[in-house]
Design goal:
This protein is an alpha+beta fold and 81 residues long. The protein has three helices and two strands; from the N terminus they run H-E-E-H-H. It is elongated and about 60 Å long.
């Protein structure tokens, strides 16, 4: 397990994410963070920007295109019925 980082909650209920964590996970100004509650505590998950997701599905392009074609064909069949 890596060494833990800590932060202090301010009077306005804000915290600063330690620089080491921000750099490691690419968290920049304006980034969105999701707070997930679990039985063990709170998990912070950075939400990637739309531009960071561009092209993420390249490896599955053919599978995705085939799935879209199948859905379109199914919708056409249903529309004819």
């Amino acid at each position: 397990m890596e060494m833990a980082e800590s932060a202090t909650v301010t009077s306005k209920s804000m915290i600063n994410i330690p620089a080491k964590i921000r750099h490691k996970y690419g968290i920049k100004e304006g980034a969105k963070i999701i707070f997930l509650e679990s039985e063990d505590g709170i998990i912070l998950v950075p939400v990637p920007s739309i531009s960071a997701l561009f092209g993420i599905d390249k490896e599955r392009k053919d599978i995705l295109l085939e799935a879209v074609r199948e859905l379109e064909e199914e919708h056409r069949r249903e529309a004819r019925e």
